[in-house]
């Protein structure tokens, strides 16, 4: 080679580039400790000889590297799915239709990868007191149908029904659920008066918001099921809370007075209805009694008339006697017999009982005290 034969000789030149080492002598100067200075070709030859003989322990190093590579591949190929999760395997980025249930599973990494989805029920809270990721202080301020501003705080309970759609159809599904629920609540509140949100129809509003939210999420094929909308609080903004509370108290007083008036009216109406019912019962009883008496009198007359037809004289006499008994039954009577042969006929008498009665009554009623006795004379033939 050029650096081996610079001196023109055929032998090996161990000196400088001109065939002789500095200082003279064919062998040239030696390094301390003996030996000539190695040239580049010697170094390359020695390295080639070492590679031909093999690296010490090289085979075991290769085997160990293979074992480590296999272990690393196995660790990445085995995965575990939790009890509240499902796994979606992807082969070259394409999801498989089969889902991985909770437990230990194997896939061909890195050709296949896995995405895990939590299928338990999730809760997203929306409102002015929300301190989460979207915790703005104006989230719950909404305009009602009667042009009032209300502050609504509500929670959305939802779960994943289709993990594949949940992972690949929407970029941020949780934020999408929150936005859809808030939009639905604003739509429903904008059609209702503020009183419905405060107390009158919270259940109806929650049901309507749930239906609208579910329809929005279904239109995006998100694979999410909204199970419940819970309105936790509905109140006016803090700036007008005092005035609104005054209005509420006035309305409550109005309702209370109206309720008392209705109660009083119901009491009077109940008493009047009871009296009317009693009067109707008395009238019905009186009418029944009169009719029964009239019926009895008519039947008695008919029976008397039948006897009169059979025996007129006897019947007339009996009727006369009964009539005289009724007429004379309550009056004072004096019975006088016809005069006999030796009698005087009519005998005057002094009415002592009447005199005593008149004297006792006159002493208390007449202030003059003048009571004239009277005598009654009956004559008879």
From TrEMBL:
Keyword Membrane: yes
SUPFAM superfamilies per record: Band 7/SPFH domain
Region described as Disordered: 1-44, 350-381
Domain Band: 76-248
Pfam families, per database record: Band_7
Membrane topology: Single-pass membrane protein
A single GO BP: proteolysis
Compartments it resides in: Membrane
Any one Gene Ontology molecular-function term assigned to this protein's record: peptidase activity
KW Hydrolase (keyword) present: yes
SMART domains: PHB
GO CC annotations on file: membrane
Gly residues: compositionally biased ranges: 1-36
Residue ranges that the Swiss-Prot or TrEMBL entry lists as coiled coil: 240-267
Keywords (A to Z) from UniProt: Coiled coil, Hydrolase, Membrane, Protease, Transmembrane, Transmembrane helix
Subunit record text: HflC and HflK may interact to form a multimeric complex.
Known role: HflC and HflK could encode or regulate a protease.
Protein family per UniProt: Belongs to the band 7/mec-2 family. HflK subfamily.
Name of the featured protein: Protein HflK
């Amino acid at each position: 080679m050029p650096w081996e034969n610079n001196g023109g000789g055929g032998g090996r030149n161990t000196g400088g580039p001109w065939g002789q080492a500095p200082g003279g002598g064919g062998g040239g100067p030696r390094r301390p400790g003996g030996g000539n200075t190695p040239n580049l070709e010697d170094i390359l030859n020695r390295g080639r000889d070492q590679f031909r003989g093999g690296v010490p322990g090289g085979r075991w190093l290769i085997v160990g590297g293979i074992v480590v590579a296999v272990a690393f591949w196995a660790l990445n190929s085995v995965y575990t799915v939790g009890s509240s999760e499902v796994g979606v395997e992807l082969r070259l980025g394409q999801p498989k239709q089969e889902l991985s249930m909770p437990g230990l599973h194997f896939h061909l990494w890195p050709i296949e990868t896995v995405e895990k989805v939590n299928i338990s029920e999730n809760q997203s809270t929306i409102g002015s007191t929300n301190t989460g990721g979207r915790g703005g202080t104006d989230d719950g301020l909404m305009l009602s149908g009667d042009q009032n501003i209300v502050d609504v705080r509500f929670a959305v309970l939802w779960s994943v029904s289709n993990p594949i759609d949940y992972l690949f159809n929407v970029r941020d599904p949780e934020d999408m659920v929150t936005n859809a629920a808030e939009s639905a609540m604003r739509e429903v509140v904008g059609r209702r008066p503020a009183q419905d949100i405060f107390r009158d129809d919270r259940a109806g509003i929650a049901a309507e918001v749930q239906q609208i939210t579910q329809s929005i999420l279904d239109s995006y094929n998100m694979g999410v099921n909204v199970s419940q909308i819970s309105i936790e609080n509905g109140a006016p903004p803090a700036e007008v809370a005092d005035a609104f509370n005054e209005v509420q108290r006035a309305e409550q007083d109005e309702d209370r007075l109206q309720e008392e008036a209705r109660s009083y009216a119901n009491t009077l109406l109940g008493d009047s209805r009871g009296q009317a019912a009693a009067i109707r019962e008395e009238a019905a009883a009186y009418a029944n009694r009169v009719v029964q008496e009239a019926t009895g009198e008519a039947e008695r007359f008919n029976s008397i008339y039948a006897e009169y037809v059979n025996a007129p004289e006897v019947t007339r006499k009996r009727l006369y006697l009964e009539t005289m008994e009724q007429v004379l039954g309550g009056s004072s009577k004096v019975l006088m017999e016809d005069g006999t042969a030796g009698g005087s006929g009519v005998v005057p008498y002094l009415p002592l009982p009447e005199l005593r009665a008149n004297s006792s009554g006159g002493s208390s009623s007449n202030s003059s005290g003048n009571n004239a006795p009277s005598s009654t004379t009956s004559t008879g033939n």
